[in-house]
Structures are given as C-alpha cells and as structure tokens.
Design goal:
Oligomer: heterodimer
Number of strands of chain B: 10
Shape of chain B: globular
Distance between the termini of chain A: 21 Å
Largest interface: A-B, 32 and 45 residues
Strand content of chain B: 25-35%
Radius of gyration of chain B: 18 Å
CATH topology of chain A: ABC transporter involved in vitamin B12 uptake, BtuC
Largest sheet of chain B: 6 strands, mixed
Number of strands of chain A: 4
Largest sheet of chain A: 2 strands, antiparallel
CATH topology of chain B: Rossmann fold
Structural class of chain B: alpha/beta
Strand content of chain A: under 5%
Structural class of chain A: mainly alpha
Mean pLDDT of chain B: 88
CATH class of chain A: Mainly Alpha
CATH architecture of chain A: Orthogonal Bundle
Strand order of the largest sheet of chain B: 6-7-8-3-9-10
CATH architecture of chain B: 3-Layer(aba) Sandwich
Mean pLDDT of chain A: 91
Number of helices of chain B: 10
Shape of chain A: globular
Low-confidence stretches of chain B: none
Distance between the termini of chain B: 31 Å
C-alpha cells in the first residue's frame, strides 16, 4: 500500500501544474507545500526513523535561507547550481556541529536533552538574528535576488514549481534509499532499543549524528528554496515556531513513513488556505484548524497515513530474503 | 588460557556495595556459571563485564586487553556478547531482521548504506535461525514469538557475531521445563567456538551445562570450582545452596 500512496502523491504533484496552469495563486500554494515538505521530511528522518527528537530543524532551514539571501545581496550571485548545494552544505555542517555537542558526548544523551538542546539552538539563533543589523535584524532580508540558472531567473510559477518538485523527488529518493538500506535497519533498531544495539557493537551516537547531519542538509535546501520563493527571510524562519510546525506536519501525516510528512504538510497548508478563504469562518479558522490537529494527534497517533498503512508495513523488512526467494 | 580475568572489582551505588572485591577467571572454551541468591551481585557483575556499568574499582582483562573502561560497543567489537536478563529482542522488527541486525554489526558505515552484505548474510541468518529452531518464524515479528522463542532468538542474536565470550543473564527465565531442556541442548555445541558466563537460578540446568561455578553472596565470591567441588563444599551447601 505504501508504494502505491507514494506513487499517487508524486503523480498528483506532477500533474498539478497542468491542472492549475491558470491559477498562479494555487501553484504558489503547492510550491510552498513542496518546499515545506522537505523541512517536515528532515524532521521525519530524525524522529520517525532515528528517534532523535529535534525541535530545531528550522535552525538549519533559516540559516541556509539567510546565507543564500546574503550571497545574493553581497555577491550578486544566485545561480541555483551553486547556491542550493551551498545551502545544503551550510545546513549539514551546522547540524553536524550541533550533533557534536548534543549527540557525541561521552554519555548517551536523553531524548529530553536533545529536544531542549535543539530547541534552545533555534531560539538563540532567532534572538541573535533579530538583533543583528547586518542581516536586517527584526525586519529580515527582503527583495532577495531571484534564483537563477544561467540567464534565466525563476519567479513564482510553474518553473519554480518544477525546481522544487525535482528537489523533493531527489531528496525523497535519497532518503528512501537510506531508510531501506542495511543502515536503515540499524536506525530502525536504534529507535526501538539503543542500548541493545550498542551491545552488538554499533556506535549508536555516530549513526544518529550522520542522520541528523543529512537531515540538516535537507532542511538547508528547503530553507534556500523558501527564501528564493518568498523573496524574503526573517528571524521567524529559524526559530522554534517553524521548528514546531515541521513537527506537526510530520505527526499529522504520519511519522516514520517519508510520505507522511508530505501528506501532512499538504493537508495542513491546504486546509489553512481553504479555511482562511471561507467567508463564514474567516474570523476563527485557526481555532478550527487547531481542533482538527488536536483530534488527529490525540486519536490517530500514527497520523493520517496510519489509517491506510499498518505498522508492519511502515517498518517493513530489510533482509534479502523476500527479494531473493 | 584465561580469556576473561576479573580482578578485585567493586561496584558501589551510594551506600550499597553491590560488588565487593570480585575475582573471576574464565578459561577459553569453558562454560562458567554464576549462581547466588537474589541481590548477590550476579547481574551486576555481568553488566560490569559487558560495560553496561563501569566498576568503581578493579580491572577486567578480556583476551589480554584491558576493557575496564571501554564502552559497550568496543567490548562487543572485541568479541564480547551479552544477552540481557529482560528479553531485549526488537519486537517491531521481523525475526529475520533481528538476526541480520546482529550479524551485520561488523560492517562499515559505507557498506551498510550500500547494503553490500544483505545477500551475502542471508545464508548465515537462516543458519542461525535454523540452529535455534526459528527458521519457520523468520518472517514473523519478533514480538509475535512466545517468551521462550524470544529467549532463543536473543541467544541466536548474541551468538550471531561469533563472539569469543557470551554473557547470558538468566536465559531460561520464564521457560517451561521442556524449553529449558532444549535450551541446554542448543547451547552445548557452541563450546568449541565460544566461552560462556551464565547467570541462572535453575541449578539443575546450570549444573548440566557448566564446567565451573562461582557462587556469589552479598557481592562477594563465596566459592569457585568445578560443579562437583561446589556441590561438595559444605560452606556453600550450608550457607548458600539451600537458599537458592
């Protein structure tokens, strides 16, 4: 069932521009969904697959977004073939640095320590940026130089959508390869019982640091695309608020599935768009959205995807047995 | 030749001295039983050897290497393997994947990412499962196994990386008499490849498979010797054995 859902979601994303060609507002909405899906997916790799409770994914997202904005402003350079990899590098290195502090200590860190550590990192970065004039302080950076490829500049619309979708497809394929590999089996075991794995000879914290850094790269890519797409970045893009939103996207759709965060992001963003655009409830739509989120998280802990995919299928099999015999 | 040499190990938790100057020597190719009443320090000693707890004082030499302060993953890489007292199979994974996870632990990060040994290890995984009568349950979730089968699975996992020394903490806990008998049969053939330190309350089981016994009481060694020597030790008989 899970591969069918994955195919259906990507097929829907491929045909969307053809169906909505004359609705720029909706193309922009779905582009945002795709970009934010990357952020939610980065959280899913941490929590859903590796048991790392990261409340700081927006830190990597936001810093990378600022970096591409500053490169555009100060160096007048925004070629995507260089700036998007740069954003991934920034996100990955920042996550690796945080991992050294939070995950690679002498003692095995608790989930609470990692959660508070990442949360504090995001909060501190938000406060730092909000008071730093060079990066626009509380006003952020606006009129970001357009993302370009050669002489072509990407504005909101189908072309930007195509770049974002290609990025999501590549990241999704790489993440799927990781979590279905023998290393994915280590992550699945680690999520259930870290101590047991250490007694097999696995250096569990190193695996966590690797996944955390990879997730940081994805969040960095997402942040760069978001800055280019919005034409703006500000302190809230690297704070706890957006970090928590990514957690909710993931849990709403179904953690530990890769496609769940994409579905969760789409469901919440589209629901927000529809509710905010409905005259009868325009005044109190956030309350309705909040109630929907609470109901799903409280009564459907495996998220929307849990309605269709069993726990057994979600975790899957890793051996050669089924493939060979 | 001594494979494991524990010297003057103590472990202190606040006011409690869980281990008090323990000396223990385990020869390669032997099965060594640790017996004693609840709270005598058997599991604490096993955890100190495996690295779950570091000793407060004393030293532990394994295969001529000082492992006293080594983290568990390094001890495992040096050939030490542990089966926990409380079953720690990974219940959400299949029986097959539990053993594969144990077997592939020697692979590097790149090899794991590229799944290089997935097919190569298939035969070894099935061999390990067949040895412990679990081959026909390979595709089932580990959580669906009976308690006894989970114990066997965990022993199969602990043996999978071909350790030099296996530490077993109450492997027959919660098993039926028939399952205990089979467990003894399953363990006996490993002696040629692997030494064993086993903590067990079932004295008949432990006497049947062990070459030597060490009796612990209140964190101290009460006596060490062959099964016959321990059985004939009046002090052990009087002070300890009848209380187990």
């Amino acid at each position: 069932m899970l591969p069918v859902i994955e195919l259906a979601v990507f097929a829907a994303l491929v045909v969307t521009p053809f169906l909505l060609a004359d609705r720029t507002d909706l193309i922009t909405l779905v582009t945002n969904v795709i970009i934010l899906s990357l952020l939610a997916l980065s959280f899913d790799l941490c929590w859903g697959f590796s048991g790392i409770m990261s409340f700081g994914q927006a830190l990597f997202f936001g810093v990378a977004g600022y970096v591409v904005a500053l490169v555009g402003r100060d160096l007048e350079f925004s070629q995507l073939w260089a700036t998007l990899p740069l954003a991934m590098l920034v996100g990955g290195l920042l996550a690796a640095g945080l991992a050294v502090f939070l995950l690679l200590g002498k003692r095995t860190p608790s989930s609470i320590f990692v959660a508070f550590g990442t949360l504090t990192g995001a909060y501190a970065a938000e406060r730092l940026v909000a008071g730093w004039q060079y990066v626009g302080a509380g006003n952020g950076l606006s009129a970001i130089r357009l993302m370009a490829f050669g002489d072509y500049e990407f504005v909101e619309g189908v072309e930007f959508y195509a770049v974002a979708l290609a990025a999501l497809a590549l990241v999704y394929a790489a993440s799927r390869y990781l979590v279905r590999s023998q290393m994915g089996l280590v992550l699945a075991g680690m999520r259930q019982n870290e101590e047991r794995l250490a007694f097999f000879g696995y250096r569990v914290q190193v695996f966590k640091a690797l996944v955390f850094s990879f997730a940081g790269m994805i969040a960095g890519l997402s942040g760069a695309l978001y800055s280019y797409h919005q034409g703006f970045t500000g302190p809230s893009n690297l704070g706890p608020g957006l970090s928590t939103t990514a957690v909710i996207y993931c849990l709403f759709g179904g953690s530990g599935t890769l496609i769940g965060p994409v579905i969760g992001t789409a469901a919440i963003e589209v629901l927000s768009y529809v509710l905010a655009d409905t005259d009868a409830i325009r005044q109190f739509w956030p309350v309705i959205l909040g109630v929907v989120l609470l109901v799903v998280v409280a009564f459907q802990p495996s998220g929307l995807l849990g309605l269709l995919v069993s726990s057994r299928e979600r975790i899957g099999s890793y051996g050669a047995r089924k493939a060979v015999r | 030749m001594a494979l494991l040499r524990v010297s003057a190990v103590t472990k202190v938790y606040g006011p409690l001295k869980a281990l008090d100057g323990i000396d223990l020597t385990v020869e390669a190719g032997t099965f060594h039983g640790l017996i004693g009443p609840n709270g005598s320090g058997k599991s604490t000693l096993l955890k100190a050897i495996a690295g779950a707890h570091l000793p407060t004082t004393g030293s532990i030499l394994f295969d001529d290497t000082d492992i006293t302060a080594m983290p568990p993953y390094q001890r495992a890489r040096n050939g030490l393997s542990l089966k926990f007292q409380i079953t720690a199979v990974l219940t959400e994974l299949s029986v097959y994947d539990n053993v594969l996870l144990a077997l592939q632990s020697a692979e590097g990060y790149g090899a794991l990412l590229r799944s290089r040994s997935r097919q190569r290890l298939d035969a070894e995984v099935m061999q390990a499962l067949e040895r412990f009568r679990l081959a026909d349950r390979a595709d089932d979730l580990a959580g669906e196994l009976s308690h006894g089968e989970q114990q066997w699975l965990e022993i199969a996992m602990a043996l999978a990386p071909r350790p030099k020394l296996l530490l077993l903490d109450e492997p027959t806990g919660g098993m039926s008499p028939e399952e205990r008998r089979v467990t003894g049969e399953l363990l006996t053939p490993i002696k040629q490849d692997c030494a064993l330190v086993i903590v067990e309350h079932d004295l008949d089981f432990i006497k049947n498979i062990c070459d030597r016994l060490t009796v612990l009481d209140q964190g101290r060694v009460l006596g060490t010797g062959t099964v016959a020597e321990i059985e004939g030790d009046a002090r052990v008989q009087e002070i300890y054995t009848r209380r187990v």
